[in-house]
Design brief:
Largest sheet: 9 strands, antiparallel
Distance between the termini: 38 Å
CATH class of the largest domain: Mainly Beta
Shape: flat
Helix content: 10-25%
Oligomer: single chain
Strand content: 15-25%
Number of domains: 4
CATH topology of the largest domain: Deoxyuridine 5'-Triphosphate Nucleotidohydrolase, Chain A
Structural class: alpha+beta
InterPro entries: DNA/RNA_pol_sf (IPR043502), Retrovirus_Pol_polyprotein (IPR050951)
CATH superfamily of the largest domain: Deoxyuridine triphosphatase (dUTPase)
Length: 319
């Protein structure tokens, strides 16, 4: 540290800061009392002055990107799926309300408008964003485009209407025409007609847990093919898992691993990184509920290695 050299045991963890000094160093008897001078931005440790710099708190503004390609007909608006960028600190679920504002570059690129939106990130991985196309031509927006910026909002959401507009029961993939120069439309007014896309018409009977599978499988397909797949999924809906806790397993065969005369391999537990604090127990409890693992006193044992996936979730791995 600066000109100061010393040996000390360190803990390596996945954290944003390059290094954290604990009280075992700042108050260690082998050093002189530590002096922190914020006025001159220095730390005096063991009589040696170490220059420091003050970092301001990082901005809570996050990027909002589209989760798919969307086509917006002329003089129409559509509600699309978008995703708010996540960070390591978001691994622990917490109530997060964001307000989404339009990205000026997105409007300039496509010539569309994006409505300001108040969303709750706990409800789903995706958040709804309303895009308005007032031009005379159809516009296509692309996957991963930055549609706006999200900022944490400390206020609770306030419900302005007791009942949402009926036309938004299937708001994703729904498009409605925009009439310019006409009288103002009130919420619930029957004269405001919604035009459902083919995807919405064919997916009405698709079970909720198969909706995402259906949407991905029918991309670019015609109405007849979409209807056939919807009928097939509805007929065999019971063979698909609805969540992570009903995966099940076969009882036809039983798998065994022949270790021969090999000596049992038992690896000692490893310290869980601070970034994954609490995730190991959560992963074990989940696999217990799923019936994937069970309590054992086997001489064979290997510790869990937690690996972070691209979507921010944690995957437990065992050697």
């Amino acid at each position: 540290m600066g000109k100061l050299k010393f040996q000390h045991e360190l803990i390596v963890a996945e954290i944003d800061d390059e290094c954290l000094l604990g009280l075992d160093i700042l108050c260690d008897s082998q050093f002189e009392p530590t002096v922190i001078n914020l006025g001159e931005n220095i730390i005096k440790l063991n009589g040696i002055e170490i220059p420091c710099s003050l970092e301001r708190q990082r901005s809570e503004i996050r990027q909002v990107t589209l989760m798919d390609d969307y086509v917006i007909p002329a003089k129409s608006e559509i509600i699309v799926k978008a995703m708010i960028d996540q960070s390591e600190k978001d691994m622990i679920p917490a109530q997060q309300t964001y307000i989404i504002e339009a990205n000026p570059d997105f409007k300039k690129k496509y010539g569309v408008s994006v409505a300001s939106t108040l969303v709750d990130s706990r409800q789903s991985v995706s958040v709804p964003v309303r895009i308005l196309n007032l031009s005379d031509v159809t516009t296509k927006v692309s996957l991963d485009d930055s549609v706006g910026h999200a900022e944490k909002c400390g206020l609770d959401q306030i419900r302005l209407l007791r009942v949402q507009e009926n036309g938004e029961d299937h708001n994703f993939f729904n498009i409605r025409s925009v009439q310019l120069g006409g009288k103002e439309q009130n919420v619930g007014d029957d004269s405001l007609q919604w035009q459902k896309s083919e995807s919405a018409e064919c997916s009405i009977k698709v079970p909720p847990h198969l909706k995402d599978l259906y949407d991905r499988a029918t991309e670019g397909k015609n109405r007849k093919m979409k209807a056939a797949l919807a009928k097939l999924l509805e007929k065999h809906a019971d063979v698909f898992s609805e969540n992570e806790l009903d995966l099940g397993r076969t009882n036809v065969v039983e798998h065994s691993i022949n270790t021969g005369n090999s000596r049992p391999l038992r690896q000692p537990p490893r310290k869980v990184p601070l970034a994954f604090e609490g995730e190991e127990k959560k992963a074990i409890d989940t696999m217990m509920k799923q019936g994937i693992i069970q309590k054992s006193t086997s001489p064979w044992a290997s510790p869990i290695v937690l690996v972070k996936k691209k979507n921010g979730k944690v995957r437990p791995c065992i050697d």
